[in-house]
Amino acid sequence: MKILFLKKLTWILIVGVLFTSILPNIVSNYWFIEIFSNFKLQYLIISIFLLFISLFFLNKKVLAFILLIISMLWNGYFIAPYYFSDTTAPKSKKEVKISSINLLSSNSETDLVKNYIFEEDPDILILIEFTQNWQIKLNPIIDNYQYKRLVPRNDNFGIALLSKYEMNSSIDYFDLNDKPSIVADLNIESDKISLVATHPAAPINQLTFENRNKQLSNILNKRSKLSEKLIIAGDFNTSSFSNHFSKLTNGDLKDSRFGFGLLPTWPANYLMLQTTLDHFLVSKNLEVIERSTGKNIGSDHLPINIIIGVN
Questions:
Q1: Most buried of 19, 63, 206, 229, CB within 10 angstroms?
Q2: pLDDT value for 58
Q3: Strands, sheet with 124-128, edge to edge from the N-terminal-most edge strand
Q4: Residue 120 near residue 307, CB atoms below 8 Å
Q5: pTM for the full model?
């Protein structure tokens, strides 16, 4: 009886992991289905585990192997480029470090956040979920940056951009809603780089799902108004595996993770569930020298860092 139950459960898991692997990339315009696209790494690990389980419990091993191999290949297709892409780049005259931190508006670990920023000492700092309370707590750090654009709010959509380099910035809502993004032109050495710091809504229903997609799409629609060298950064509330994220890299933008690994960021406290919600998209004419995630600073997101080469 127990063996029969385990066999049925194994088949349910095999079929389940196959459907949750493939369906979100086929039916990608419904919010609840698309959520399942975020966990490709977990599906790959589960598929490998089930492959070994099938050796002991299943009679139709060949069918189980075929279904699991399809699942493994499908998920591996999305994951492999992040580990096997070439990251070799010519030596640049100047290296610029950019950090993006989702503070979490309710985060009380002020010292962890401050210490992390002091340790990393980024040239450009993006702060997501930036509240008036966070502005007060981080004022000594904010004062260290000559150029800044601060948009504190009482909800989760405040945002700030701080720079040690000359910066002209503005607030943009990208023709959609009341959630601000910051658009900046940075003068670094002889280079002019545009940076968009953004935080679309979380896709918790069909409306917020569509608003998230429209916000990201509307940023790309203004691509011609931005510098040839461009960085789009922040908490996108979508992983690297979503069809809607893939649309962002159809043109001259690339995911800065390529060659450095997945580097998942959310949820910070649950390693087995972590996926890639925080991003740096960079134009293909920018060199990505280093890409990393930071340590847990009390937020539900891990910080992300990038070093780009500037000539």
A1: 229
A2: 78
A3: 147-151, 159-163, 124-128, 94-102, 304-310, 287-293
A4: no
A5: 0.93
Residue 8 has a pLDDT of 84
**Segments of the chain scoring below 50 in pLDDT:** none
- Provide the CB-side half-sphere exposure for 230 (13 A, CA): 22
Per residue in 133-157, is it b (16+ CB within 10 Å) or e — as a string? bbbebbeebbeebebbbbbebeebb
Q: What is the distance between the alpha carbons of residues 200 and 277, in angstroms, rounded to a whole number?
A: 11
Residue the block writes with tokens 């898991």: 13
The torsion of the CA quartet 236, 240, 246, 248, rounded to 10 degrees, works out to 30
- DSSP class per residue in 239-251: -TTSHHHHHHTSS
Count of residues in the chain:
311
Structural tokens at position 252: 């001259």
CA distance 35 to 277: 12
Residue 73 and residue 277: Cα distance in Å, rounded?
23
- pLDDT tens track for 28-53: 999 999 999 999 999 999 999 999 88
User: What is the per-residue pLDDT for 88?
Assistant: 64
Q: In the sheet that 191-198 helps form, which strands lie side by side, from edge to edge?
A: 166-172, 181-188, 191-198, 229-235, 278-283, 253-255
Angle at Cα 278 formed by Cα 273 and Cα 281, nearest 5°? 135
CA angle 60, 65, 70 (to 5 degrees): 135
> 2-26 and 61-79 helices cross at what angle (nearest 10)?
40
- 287: tokens are 């060199």
| Surface-to-core class of residue 8, CB atoms within 10 Å of its CB (0-12 exposed, 13-18 middle, 19+ buried) | exposed
pLDDT of 6 reads: 77
* pLDDT for the residue numbered 306: 98
Main-chain phi, psi angles of 308, to 5 degrees: -110, 150
